[in-house]
Amino acid sequence: MSDNTPYIIIGKEEGVRALASAFYDAMDELEEAESVREMHKENLDLIKQKLFEYLNGWLGGPHLYKDKYGSICLTDPHQPYPIGEEQRDQWITCWDRALEIVDAPDEFREMTREPIQRMASLMVNT
């Protein structure tokens, strides 16, 4: 791993876990994320853990999600849900709020901004 991966910059496993938790906390608390929140179960513990595991590898750390579940096509698990631009934007709002909550370094924000926006746009299916 390079010293400048997003994984290192956010604080390795501890930082990624905090970010994943803050993301779903934001989704749970922000009124403007209501329609995307409704796509999830009431208890967010499992999805927080899965996001942590996924982001860990995606950001340049150990591939916890892949090691546990195998590879994933991100669009497949999202197909049952009608995801439009509104939901995409709500998801990005939660991401941005999570970055604020964990006080993510500017370098991390810059490195992940476009990839996160592309990833969120790939989920749009309506």
Would you summarize the structure shown here?
With 126 residues, this protein is an all-alpha fold. The chain is 67% helix and 0% strand.
Explain what this protein looks like in three dimensions.
The protein is mainly α and about 130 residues long. The chain has a single domain, classed as Orthogonal Bundle (Globin-like). About 65% of the residues lie in helices and about 0% in strands. It contains eight helices and no strands. It has helices spanning about 5-10, 10-30, 35, 45-60, 65-70, 75-80, 85-100, 105-120. The longest helix is centred in the first third of the chain and has 18 residues, at about 10-30. It starts with 5 loop residues before the first helix and ends with a helix.
